[in-house]
Amino acid sequence: MIRLLHRIGDSSFGFLEQAGRLLLFLIRVLAKALRPPYCWRRVLRQIHFIGARSMLVILVAGLFTGMVLALQFYDTLVRFGSTSLLGSAVALAMIRELAPVLTALVVIGRAGSAICSELGIMRSDEQIDALECMAIDPYRYLLVPKLLACVISVPLLTSLFIMIGIGGGWFVAVVLFGLGEAAYFQGMYETVVMHDIYMGFTKSLVFGLLIVWITSAKGFFLHLERCGAYGAEGVSRVTTDAVVAASISVLCADYLISALVL
Amino acid sequence: MDCATVPGKGRGQLPIWLRMMNAVTDDSADSPVVEVSDLVAHYGDRVILDGIDLQVLPGEILVIMGSSGSGKSTLLRHLLGLKKPSSGQIRVLGEDLTRLDQKQLFRLRRKIGVAFQNGALFGSLTVGENVELPLREHTDLDASTIRVMARMKLEMMNLAGFDMLMPSELSGGMLKRAGLARALVMDPEILFFDEPSAGLDPVTAAELDDLILNLRGTLGMSIVVVTHELESAFKIADRIAVLDQGQLMVTGTVDEVRATDNERVQDLFHRRPRNEAVDRDAYLHRLTGYRHDAP
Question: Which of B116, B120, B291 is facing A228, going by the closest CB pair?
Answer without folding.
Answer: B291
